[in-house]
Design a protein that fits this description.
By secondary structure, the protein is of the alpha+beta class. Helices cover 20% and strands 36% of the residues. A hairpin with a 2-residue loop joins strand 3 and strand 4. The protein starts with a strand and ends in a 9-residue tail after the last helix.
């Protein structure tokens, strides 16, 4: 499973959400998924919405560009970053290895 993959309409990100964290941030890659930590509790979709906004912000996009594809009520989610390029997301999220691959 790729953490990020490109589609014609944007970039798909596989994420794992950690609710009730101390702050909102993208905390690296764990078990093949971006780990997104949010302060919201997992109630009424609040943690999911905050995770979408946090990921979009970290990728340098508006929060409206992040669309949930799978995992509405699960910790593991699939997100579409509309209009984004793979290279830009990798650079913004610092996922490129030092050799640039």
């Amino acid at each position: 499973m790729e953490v990020l993959s490109e589609r014609p309409d944007g970039v798909v990100a596989e994420i794992s959400v950690r609710p009730r964290a101390g702050r909102c941030r993208v905390a690296g890659v764990t078990a093949g998924r971006l780990r997104v930590e949010v302060t919201a509790a997992p109630e009424d979709g609040a943690a999911t919405e905050q995770a979408l906004a946090t990921l979009a912000s970290a990728a340098g996009l508006k929060s409206s560009c992040a669309v949930l594809l799978k995992g509405r009520r699960e910790r593991h989610k699939t997100i579409l970053l509309k209009g984004a390029s793979l290279a830009a997301c990798q650079a913004a999220l610092m996922l490129l290895d030092p050799s640039g691959r």
